[in-house]
Amino acid sequence: MSVGYARTWVLKRFHITAAIALGCSIGVVDVDSYKSNGLDVYPSIFPRFAVGYNADTWSINARLYANILYTTFAKESKTSLATGNGRLTFIKRFNRPRK
């Protein structure tokens, strides 16, 4: 389950977007002691960022995504799995005659 917020700023032909989602995951620290310890709740974080420029016949955009998922979150140790993705997109618009 996650909840988040996103904001986009448009400045003439430029746009900037920032977003973050905070969530929780349910799991166990030790499978063998599941019956005595029960389920645990771990935080997860999903930040995102994008920037771009739109012209009349072309556009360029860059996006960065990250996912941070904690597999253990205890006072003694915090283990997380972090992944990321970046994309650069160039778009050329072709004017096709309409029929």
Number of strands: 5
Order of helices and strands: EEHEEE
CATH class: Alpha Beta
Strand order of the largest sheet: 1-2-3-4-5
Shape: elongated
Percent of residues in helices:
under 10%
Structural class: mainly beta
Beta percentage is over 45%
User: How many domain units?
Assistant: 1
Intertermini distance: 48 Å
Number of helices: 1
Q: What is the fourth-level CATH superfamily?
A: F-actin capping protein, beta subunit
CATH topology assignment:
Aspartate Aminotransferase, domain 1
Low-confidence stretches: none
Average pLDDT, all residues: 85
- Kindly provide the radius of gyration, computed on alpha-carbon positions and rounded to a whole number of angstroms: 21 Å
* Biggest sheet features: 5 strands, antiparallel
Task: Write a structural description.
The structure is a single chain. The chain has one helix spanning about 35; strands spanning about 1-10, 15-25, 40-55, 60-75, 80-90. The chain has about 100 residues and is mainly beta. The chain has a five-stranded antiparallel sheet with strand order 1-2-3-4-5, with no helix packed on it. A hairpin with a 4-residue loop joins strand 4 and strand 5. The protein starts with a strand and ends in a 7-residue tail after the last strand.
List keywords for this structure.
99 residues, 5 strands, Aspartate Aminotransferase, domain 1, five-stranded antiparallel sheet, mainly beta, single chain, elongated
